[in-house]
Write a structure and sequence with these properties.
Elements lengths: L15 E4 L5 E6 L5 H9 L3 H8 L8 H8 L6 E8 L2 E11 L12 E8 L8 H15 L4 E6 L4 H8 L5 E6 L2 E7 L4 H23 L3 E5 L8 H11 L5 E5 L9 E2 L2 E4 L11 E4 L6 H11 L3 E4 L9 H16 L3 E3 L5 E4 L6 E4 L7 E8 L2 H12 L11 E6 L8 H9 L6 E6 L5 H12 L4 E5 L20 H10 L3 E3 L2 H13 L7 E6 L2 H13 L3 E2 L3 E2 L6 H13 L5 E6 L10 H14 L5 E5 L5 H5 L55 E2 L2 H21 L15 H12 L5 E2 L2 H9 L8 E3 L3 H11 L3 E5 L13 E5 L2 H15 L2 H4 L1 E5 L5 E10 L3 E8 L2 H4 L4 E5 L4 H9 L18 H17 L3 E11 L4 E3 L2 E5 L17
Helix pairs in contact: 6-11, 8-9, 10-14, 11-12, 14-19, 15-19, 16-17, 22-23, 26-27
Length: 956
Amino acid sequence: MQNSADRHEYPAHWEADVVLRDGGTARIRPITADDADRLVSFYEQVSDESKYYRFFAPYPRLSAKDVHRFTHHDFVDRVGLAATVGGEFIATVRYDRIDADGLPASGPANEAEVAFLVQDAHQGRGVASALLEHIAAVARERDIRRFAAEVLPANSKMIKVFTDAGYTQKRSFEDGVVRLEFDLEPTDRSLAVQRAREQRAEARSVRRLLVPGAVAVIGVGRAPGGVGRSVLDHIRDAGFTGELYAVNSAFPEEQKDIDGVPAHRSVRDIGGPVDLAVVAVPAAHVPDVVTECGEHGVQGLVVVSAGYAESGPEGRERQRELVRHARTYGMRIIGPNAFGVINTAENVRLNASLAPEMPRPGRIGLFAQSGAIGIALLSRLHRRGGGVTGVTGVSTFVSSGNRADVSGNDVLQYWYDDPDTDVVLMYLESIGNPRKFTRLARRTAAAKPLVVVQGARHGGAAPQGHAVRATRLPHATVSALLRQAGVIRVDTITELVDAGLLLARQPLPAGPRVAILGNSESLGLLTYDACLSEGLRPLAPLDLTTGASPEDFHRALAEALADEGCDAVVVTAIPTVGEGSPRDAALADALRSAAAEVPGKPVLVVHVELGGLAEALSAAASTAPQAGSPAPAAGPAGGSRASRPAERPPTAVATPAPAPPPAPGSCSRLIPAYPAAERAVRALGEAVKYAQWRREAAEPGKVPEFIDADIDEKGAAALIGGLLARGQGLTLGPDETAELLGTYGIPVRGALPAPSADDASAAARTLGYPVALKATAPHLRHRADLGGVRLDLADEEQLRRAYAELTGLFGTSEEVRPVVQGMAPRGVDTVVRAVIDPAAGAVLSFGLAGPASQLLGDIAHRLIPVTDRDAASLIRSIRTAPLLFGWRGSAPVDSEALEELLLRVSRLVDDHPEVIAVSLEPVVVAQHGLSVLGASVRLAPPPVRDDLGPRTLPVY
């Protein structure tokens, strides 16, 4: 590849796949000597104008010297990167290190000149912006801190690439050339620009899969049945509005259609463009299909074929090759082993899935990694009566299968600004990039509810077919971090649907105060108890008696909603006996009309064996098909558009909606009904917590700067560097721990070793009485319950007696490792920990020391960096928090000092990623101030932060 004169081996870690502005993909990689022919071919396809902009003069062709210069790099002072599609160059970028005079240089010179060239056919796709991110990351890795670029004033596109990147820069004009200089250190603006581009590109790439103009199903059997034929039938029967094609290499030459759908032996034979291909052929034949699709310009694939990572190591490698192959042609993949995708929009009507019927249109976006769970979710959302009522439908549905390429992160990017989706429901079995998911979830949750249930929570390993990085964090911690990001975390798919139905059609509650009314005293009391269990504040239930009429319900609901002391209403209803029983439709009308009078508060109904009430509640502008309604017309047929049967037998869900569902907040609000009080209240409780998060997220906290003499960031960095020079990973000793924590204003109360009773006595005289005697052996550390800690030893006699008891109980001093420590002011024992997880990132944890955290798991967590608001909520979110704030008349502790300690630990770990673990235990928080009595710190080379580098597609 490179000759012996090159200074570095080929940097394979610079290779990356990226999503471009239009949703297509490209591969970025270093340019090598083997690329000479590709470079020449690329240059021949660049216009004369673009060549002039690059070289400031007519430059029709590259000389042999030019080709050698542009393909031979040392990967340090001279670097070239290319963006490729189909193995061919579409753009290049290079930098050359220069000195202060602009002449070629080597280190320690830290400036480089950068230049781009983009093929005209690919300009406007964001290729140059992606290349700039990657060449800047390479330059920083090679200790280059600043780029310089000279651009002709007429080359406005390239000037815009530099100025829009968000780096700190300056511009000058001399000799007819614009000179731009900019620092490569990422800024808040450059990161914001990068992430905005990432969102637009990834959303566009998913849109190309969900809103195709033409679909080809590859692997369609000639006889009914089979996966390919089934998917083709589902697309046709759903009324897909675009072009549809059936493809099978085994079709006879004379076969022109399958049930009216144009048939072809290869994608290459299709006369028009194809946006989406559904691949349903055996895994061994998929590579040939991918090649055909790539050469025909197909934009994306849904691979329902099995036989990949779920089948073992060979299948996993086959899966990786599938992704590499597809990305070579700029295509993205849903799957393999996927259930498919659905888009119910009236102008799309795509059911490219194994679901036999199209779900009702609605405002809920569904993502499921499991096909079986996807079926269950679609069924529960659609089902009417006998459980949660289907008061709304689906906007789009994605089942990703093995999630080799398109993941939940990508679909979140699409749903974030999708006007047809109000609520997002996700079933996840693994999270490939937790840091990115948390970031995207926080942004999405600020705009629309995001409800997540995670499967395989306790299995300790990802499901077959899911290649994800391991996390050392327990599920409870991951769940807490997701809640911090605004995610509504539930435990079952039943709860997922319950919450989704409420959030899709009711406003968010302004608080936890719940009015309860209905015609059953017992059901009202059950609802009251359920509210208390969920942390809500229920008002006394209003019993309307079993003889209540629809007018009684209307009047009571209207009064409850008008009450300023009420934030939400739960209506309980049971059937009554006799001729005076209200009809379901009349009761539903009464409840809807009352809710419409005060549209700002949510209303839920708990119904018991009222077969028609659930349907009636959702009847206004319902998307459900009416019994006996005729099937819609099949739509136009002719040309290459698939012809469809004129009539289809009516089904529960295959019929298009007669009218779109009402917009959120409209007067004809749909009211969700639940078969059990506990389910309704649980959904309401999640809505209350989410609404509170939304209000707090609107005014986020700040990360304090701590501009004082207690923070010595440079001193800490020097100390860490010196310590790491001794080894790759080490746990610091007590003195080193105290010194490092001291650089961030975290004093640790000293302890002196006491290998003998005489040493203990000497240590106590040094520290001053009263003292504590502690065993520090690993099996006794922090175990006061075992007698390993003796407190308030007032004199030498007590100390020697305690020493004898300690060694007599647990063994020799070598086994016990006793230390003597001065007594701290009385307070509440707490524990503060920080850890850097390879998957989730840096996490700060807090709890009370002892059984509360060890036995009951009462620990709260926040992502680092922690804001002042995070620190305050952290200490208040544990169940035992009342012990800190004056429980049963005790003196409240110094919460401000505790919050400051949390912020300082967060700042230490955030400033120095080499600090991979910190444990402060115990931290005794008194009425005034606190004391850190024990501390440990572990150092290691910092883990790779893939969330801060240039945009790349993950490789699983």
